[in-house]
């Protein structure tokens, strides 16, 4: 599976699983009811998608103006830290308000979610590639069916 179909299947599965898992974790960590935790999980997913688009647009604008091209380890770390910092700044107050937590409780809960998403994203991507094959961009030259397993 390649192209737009692959992207749509990927984002749909990723977000459905992420929202379900986040809802359960938010409910457990905050003591809120399932509905309130679910709204927080969906809201966080929407914020993350919008922030991802805005942040990556700004980062790529900045990156295009740098004398040194490419994505070094340092630049990748800066990108990841900047992205996560923006989410923390946005989501911690929102979680505190919506789930009736202190800012510290919301911060600790958000750190837990960050750790979860780090592991979840790694495992999800590995499993997705095993089930659906690698994207064309990751295939060795001369292969185009996407069925190589990663």
Report a brief summary of the structure:
The protein is built from four helices and no strands. The chain has 150 residues and is mostly helical. Helix 1 crosses helix 2.
What does this 3D model show about the protein?
With 150 residues, the protein is mainly alpha-helical. It has one domain. The protein is built from four helices and no strands. The two termini are 14 Å apart.
Largest sheet data: none
Output the helix-strand order.
Answer: HHHH
- The assigned structural class equals mainly alpha
Number of domains: 1
Question: What portion of residues is helical?
Answer: over 70%
Q: What is the CA–CA distance across the termini?
A: 14 Å
Keywords:
150 residues, mainly alpha, 4 helices
Would you spell out the secondary-structure blueprint of this structure?
Elements (H helix, E strand, L loop, with lengths): L2 H28 L3 H31 L8 H26 L4 H30 L18
